[in-house]
Design brief:
The protein contains four helices and nine strands; from the N terminus they run E-H-E-E-H-E-H-E-E-E-E-E-H. It is α/β, with parallel strands linked by helices and 175 residues long.
Amino acid sequence: MTLTIFYASTTGKTEDVAQRLATLLGGNADLRDVDSLSSAEDFCGVDAMICCVPTWNTGADSLRSGTAWDTYVEDIPEISLAGKPVAILGLGDSSSYSDYFCDAMEELYSAFQAAGARMVGSVPIDGYTFNASKSVVNGRFCGLPIDEDTEPDLTDERLSAWARHLQQEMAGQLS
């Protein structure tokens, strides 16, 4: 089974984090810019995926990424991803946008879950400083939040720990 890391980026930070994560996963992951997709059906053609998304449209009820992800998020629940492992990584600013920290993660999480994907990679909220986040599901972040604006010094440690966690959670499924 191969892993594909999908990302969409406005400033380049999400792309950079996706590339760093691919390196931590031993280079066994394909990187794909969501801008290069033709339809949500493209997600069906991969074995397992990590979806990297920034939050730009803070406070919006939907389409919170402000990137190409917004083109597909409403179509994803209509495709069949039965049992396919999907992890979400989100970028946000916990200081300037503390009431909306990494909200776009939840939007992707809900869409892929509705498509039947097996959601992996949740993390505890411990160690994060924020007021509110729609990405807190059942007391945990529904994926890995990264704050390259306020806490860039924690990114490498968080990415490394999460990469190890994903490798254990998907043990035997990734080649």
